[in-house]
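How it folds
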Amino acid sequence: MFLEWRNWYYHAVSRGVVVRMDIAGFIAEARRRNVFRAAGLYAGFAFVALQLADILLPAFGLAEDNVSVLLLLIALGFPLVLVGSWLVEVTPEGVRITTPISAEQRARLKSGRLVDLAIIVLALGVGFMYVERFILSEEGTTTLLVPGSDVPNSDPQEAVPVVKENSIAVLPFDNLSSSEENAFFAAGIHEDILNSLSQNPELLVTSRTSTLAFQNTTRSIADIASELDVEYIMEGSVRRAGNRVRISVQLIEAETDRHLWSEAYERTLDDIFALQVEVAEEVAAALEVQFGGPPQTPKPANSVAAYDFFIEARDLLETYEPDNLTRAIELFEAAIDADANYVDAWAGLSIALNSRRFIGGAKEGDSARTVSAAERALSLDPNNWYANSAMARYLGQQDVARFNQANRYFETAILQNPNDADLLVFYGFSLWWQGRSADAADYFSRAFRRDPLSAEANMARAMALGWRGQREDAETHLRRALRFAPNSAYIAWWAGAIYQTTLFDQFGAARQFLDSLKLNPEFLQGYAWLAGVASHLGNYETAAYWIDRARELSPRSTDVMFRTGDNLLVQRRWQEFQEHQREWASWDDSNMVGRVYASAVHRVEAQMAWDREDIQTFRTETQAALDDALTYIRDSNADSSTEVHFWNSWMFMAAGTYAGNLGDRELAHRMFRTLASYQEQEVNPVEIQLVITHAGLGDHDKAIDYLNRFIDQGFTATQHLHVYGVLTDELGTYGNIKNNVGFIDAVARMNVKNAAILARLREELPGFFPPGG
């Protein structure tokens, strides 16, 4: 058996030697006939051709599947090149049939080692390109896989896998039209496509404000994507000539600068509104992201004129400047005149009127017009996100405070458009007033993620961080916001509001409010909030001066009425306060800020009765004030519950104080305990509430400890303390700490700080004081 195995082994080895000798001869002959060199050179040609096609085809608006056609032609040509190089050779005498040579002649030939080496390296490079492009890469053009599937997609142009966040920025479209008048049109097409994409819940879309920073930029796609923190960039151009428009769009993978998808559209203006949705749907398909159900197609304008009016108005609206708001209102009305059923124009009109109520320049009837315009928009399209946003903004602001209704409209709008940063910011504010500060901060963060280069999103971020006590981070975002919008009175005012309400820096607040008036002398909020700074510092004459200036601009503004009443109340000018409050109530008895002060009318009556020792009237008026406070608390919750939130928390304090005045210690404790439970859930609750709550519960040591801690943080409102009777009045409050030595020392220390701040203002910001004051 062993001999048989040995003979078989020798036989196999000997046959192998012969085979190896034949293969070696074949390889040597192929080398002599330059077959390998021809193959390498052909591979190099293929490599260059494919790379040029990958770059140039999208630039000429040609689909990338043409690259696949070129690859197929190259593959078919490869065997022809090999056969041709074996059969013929190029010589100085011309092309001729290659003749065989003997083994001895073959052995004497010397190959071009350097050329061979170069060809090998080139062939390896081509091989790597093939493997990387079509095997290893998930973005290959021939074996694209749908996410979550092992089956190649049949249409590579419609399937580009995206990373988990699916983030994209749509850069401003270039206006290639001959007339600059078409710049608004190009901007409108860009924003409409962006808005259509924004309605896709699977996409995180950078807001227009941040992308505008890169208009006409020379920065690379990779740099832009890095700053905006997105994976994909979309860019395009618009050329409008007469009644025809051409829109070119391309999608780029930022990390590799690869053009994943491109398309050009030529349409007449008659169907331009359908075009924006068509482009958005194709981009979504190219990203392999499907809309959650059928895409929400907004009802477009029926005229190009209406559309142009709307686009210009929307740009002005976003500045939140009084003059621009007035012009925006006129343009929205012009759009409605051109197309009475234009949903977005009605919604924009509502938002502009509502903003004017807050910013300044409001006219009688603006409140009613705000609501009617929003209702008209919703009647035309109940699911339109802009219409729902308009109604939500009105209901969710602090002076209307119909929060439960507002929340439903906000959530409907966000469901339809989860990427609009302004919508997220306004919902955050509404949640803030409801006491849901953690939820508010989350929406502020979501807005900042989608609009990192906008002043508004950075201000919202600063506000959330300041509320949490992260002062340095808050100031960083605040400075960024001021840098992004150095000429905006609105942003300068907002910075001052953050300094005052969350950073407790009255000097910084006054500086910013004065800056807002330098930028726009008719900016109402600058005047009104300067009055607040003066009042907090105990300078009531200066406060009255700024209130009068604000009243000249908008006598019926909520802020003007609030500041007037507050300044009278802290000075104990009881009779004037009552007259003022009754006048306010006669204008708008639904205003929630006004209702807060309406309960104080009864409290003032009780105070005056106590002073003249009319105990019966004192008790009657205090009970009326308590009833008003409890009614307000129930009305501020849709289910008539007594749940505490930021806005009604002040009324819990008032109710606890009034109950204490009446000797109802059980009710007083219930109000203050409920308030304390709410405060414990807050990251950084309203400072004075903690002092009042613990004073009301009889824990004077804790109340004074909190007061001293807040003085160290910058709290200054000494004169406001007496407004809350649980601390300083003589109305029979059971827990009064007015005469506590620790309380007296804390108030004295605060007065010293206020005097120092006023001295610094007089030296560095003399414009804070009235002329000659």
About this structure: The longest strand covers residues 258-268. Residues 504 and 714 are 5 Å apart (CA to CA). The two ends are 124 Å apart (CA to CA).
